[in-house]
Amino acid sequence: MAKTKNKRPDGRKPSEMRKIEMEAGVIPNAVGSARFKIGDTEAIVGVYGPRELHPRKIRLADQGLLQCNYDLMSFSVSDRKRPGPSRRDRELSLVSSNALSNLVFLDKYPTQVIDVFIQIPQADAGTRCAGICAASLALADAGIPMKGLAGSISAGAIGDTVVLDLTKEEEDWADGATDIPLTYSPKTGFITHLQLDGEISKKNLFKAIDMGVKAAEKIVDMQEKTLKEKYKGGAVE
Amino acid sequence: MKEYIKKIGKEGLRVDGRGFEDFRDIKIETGVAKKAEGSALVTFGKNKIMAGVKMDLAEPYDDSPDEGSLMVSFEEAQIAHSEWEGGRPRNEAVEIARTVDRGIRESGMIDFKKLCVKEGELVWKVYIDVYPFNYDGNIIDGSSLAAIAAILNARMPKRKGNKVLYNELSNKKLPVTKTPLTTTFVKIGEYIMVDPNLNEESVMDARLSISTSGKESINAMQKSGDGGFTPEEVKEMVEKSFKIRKVIEKAIKGVK
To answer: Is A77 at the interface with chain B, CB within 8 A?
Structure first.
């Protein structure tokens, strides 16, 4: 696929994302919630809180805690995953919490917790990024004061071609693909989540970061539009 | 502490007298655990981190029938730090193990095809377990270095059919192709420094670990902590990691 330089298995251009759908307010019980779909990857997020944090000893005296729980659902992948948190799930819970904590004014909620539950019902690569995108939207939907929204996307390389938003098929490409999931918030100017695995040159890495940041900006624009659409009549309970 | 670190940071100073780009002196001993197939003890600052390699024969995974496999674990041993509580590993410990694992795996350091005994039936599994004895910050670089030194130190055990003869190590080394190295930076206020000590790490805003192999390749990155970096800061750290890597290379050179 890298040989025919500008063609990818699904016909996208290197810098083209898959089709994105998003919606805010999908879980009635949650304070805020959202669904984010990119290609065949989907995340559903519910936000609960700010509320009391248990156990008491992990409470922070001067600020609240934002706590994500990432759950790749058992039937979301071809080979059934054993339900419950895997080591990967637990790492991604932490990574997602770190990606989002910086966006929220946590100093407004000393000793409290904001719980962010990320469910992945369908996975075709880029699930942590879809989860973070949905969480950004859900936190805003919950009316929690934020410094800004965040866009999250996986950039990377297939062979020597830098590409955006890899599918599972592309990630598994036999000659090696590099995956660089990142989260960027245009309002703060910060990358709050960045991971890489594979093998990539410095030049291509820098190109991929620029491509990812640009795409994150685009996703944030879409999030803003979605929120404005939902709340155009004012926020009513 | 954070205010103090930021205050002296203005003059380019750090609490232990280092410059922002100075890695602490590293000492590596190998063969420190005789029953392990390979082992190493890495010391820098007040860090003491031990890693051991154990190997086993097992059926390969379905998606890689002709390849051996790797499993890295990290124990927050309570001997090493008063704030580690034991019991089920915290998510932070899982993240450390998985970051070390990716640095090794993604660089292709180990040629897993050469760990295949019989395709689809029997392969070697490599278990690397990392235990700090004393924790003084930058546990990711320390664990990664200990793991890599232990791999370089390891010898293949002999086997009889599908049974491992653990007490009879061969002279054969593990099939190693290159040496990935990890450099970790933290950001405190506006200052970015490499190889954070415990004081620095406990007040950091954000952290980035970068695994490189050779002159040009980046194999793994992991951002942690709840702060952020600008895209430019990320690029600068990548540039610096290739420079700082040379210091760590010196420490691991000749390790066997």
So the answer is: no
